[in-house]
Amino acid sequence: MGKYFHILFAAACVLSLAACSSDDDYPSASGGRNSNKNIVTGDAAVSRLEFPKLKGGNSVVIVYRTSDDRTYDADRVNYAVEWDCGKKSQRWSCYQMHSGYTGSYSRVVDGYMNDPDLDEGDYWPVDYYYGSGYEHGHICPNADRKYSYKANYQTFYLTNMQPQYHKFNGYTSSGGDRGEGLWVRMEEQVRDWTPRASTDTLYVCKGGTIDREDQIIERIKGRLIVPRYFFMACLMKNSMGYRAIGFWAEQQAGDWHDDEPLSDYVVTIDELEELTGIDFFCNLPDDVESDVERKFSLKAWGL
């Protein structure tokens, strides 16, 4: 694992530490005290607001970048993943949403690929999703990365997938079994929250539970982990300041759950941290982090 250091670069455009920008996505410049921020040892991207506290150990961070010339992101970061090389499973994907990520590229490939920059021993040699009864569940949705071919392509890496039931991850509009999965509904809601103002940003971290046996449904072929619960942590930055909200949901095979309000699945970020063991939005100054993570307003989020 030493070759990965803290960051494994998997991108068309790899930037050095010196090349990273110092815009307001890097709150260390704000002067606020921050006792739990990520320590930059390889790529300053880990100090962006969408990143939770890195786990370390057998886990590496993969930062996906594109060579796109658009100005949607000064560092050309598409999204990032924490990949556990021991469990051969992802812990989370994180990314930003704002007006610069719009475009027309969608589902540019028909299939799922291993990350070419991961060592063979760090991922399963077989795609165990096929024939398992579970779907390839995007964590960073391809629909959230439509601004370029490369950005959309990168969302189809298996490092960005978790096994999900169809009635959690999918939808149908035919026959007597009409429905839309709970995960799909949550993804659509997060997409609807994308700010329109060029100065505003939504920071998102999502994933499935892989670290506690009581939060795992099974291991496909005794290997690939199937999370029992899935989560979303969202932080909005706009002219009013910061606000945050979390989603926590158990994935189930039998029902669509499309008649239940999403507010039934809302938790504070503090609660989400207790449930997952992940320290979200650790790069915020301590006082801001403490304030936004202890509360939410359904009205402010339109729920």
Please identify the oligomeric state. Answer: single chain
Characterize the main sheet: 8 strands, mixed
Shape: globular
Order of helices and strands: EEEEEHEHEEHEEEEEEHH
Number of beta-strand segments: 14
Structure commentary:
The chain is α+β, with helices and mostly antiparallel strands and 303 residues long. Helices cover 12% and strands 26% of the residues. It contains five helices and 14 strands. It has helices at 149-154, 166-169, 182-192, 269-276, 286-293, and strands at residues 7-9, 59-65, 77-84, 89-97, 135-138, 161-164, 171-172, 179-180, 201-208, 216-220, 224-227, 229-238, 241-250, 266-267. The strands form four sheets. Strands 1-2-3-4-9-12-13-14 form an eight-stranded mixed sheet, sandwiched between helices. The chain is globular, with a radius of gyration of 18 Å.
Q: Could you name the key traits of this structure?
A:
303 residues, 5 helices, eight-stranded mixed sheet, two-stranded antiparallel sheet, 26% strand, alpha+beta, 14 strands, disordered N terminus
How is this structure best summarized?
By secondary structure, this protein is an alpha+beta fold.
List the helices and strands and how they pair.
Layout: E1 7-9, E2 59-65, E3 77-84, E4 89-97, E5 135-138, H1 149-154, E6 161-164, H2 166-169, E7 171-172, E8 179-180, H3 182-192, E9 201-208, E10 216-220, E11 224-227, E12 229-238, E13 241-250, E14 266-267, H4 269-276, H5 286-293
